[in-house]
Amino acid sequence: MEQKLLIVDDEPHIRMLIEQTLEELEDEDVTFLMADNGEDALELIRKEKPQLVFLDVMMPKMNGMEVCRKVKKELLLNDVYIILLTAKGQELDRQKGQEVGADIYMTKPFDPEAILTKAKSVLGL
Predict the structure, then answer these.
(1) In this predicted model, what pLDDT tens digit does every residue of 7-42 receive, in sequence order?
(2) Where do the structural domains in the chain lie, given as residue ranges?
(3) Phi and psi, residue 66, nearest 5°
(4) Which superfamily is assigned to 3-118 in CATH?
């Protein structure tokens, strides 16, 4: 069964870094989708229903918290697993992330091994 994974970050090098970290998943029939702002991300999530989303918090047009809130609280897509990525590790942000329905909150710079392990477990690989 084909699975989809969405990487959302306004910084191209971060998107590339995450994609490289996860590239071995392509052998497992995982399709990679990319977005560089919140609006495009929301549109892709609506259309493609990816199983897993790596979502940056600080982005133009619509931030990651807002995207997450819309996906989980308005569209009620609870089978979309959202990992919020942020440079801020403050407790307040973590709480906000939980409030908007994020499944996990990871702080940048992230551990590539942790990201790969998490992705595999979410996708059941």
Answers:
(1) 999 999 999 999 999 999 999 999 999 999 999 999
(2) 3-118
(3) -65, -45
(4) Response regulator (3.40.50.2300)
84-87: which pairs have CB atoms within 8 A and are 24 or more residues apart?
84/55, 84/56, 84/57, 85/9, 85/14, 85/54, 85/55, 85/56, 85/57, 85/110, 86/56, 86/57, 86/58, 87/58
Does the pTM of the predicted model rise above 0.85?
yes
Model confidence at 45, pLDDT cuts 50, 70, 90, reads very high
Which one-letter amino acid corresponds to residue 14?
Answer: I
Q: What is the DSSP string of 96-114?
A: HHHHTT-SEEEESSP-HHH
How many residues in total does the chain contain? 125
Joined together, the tokens standing for residue 10 give 């306004």
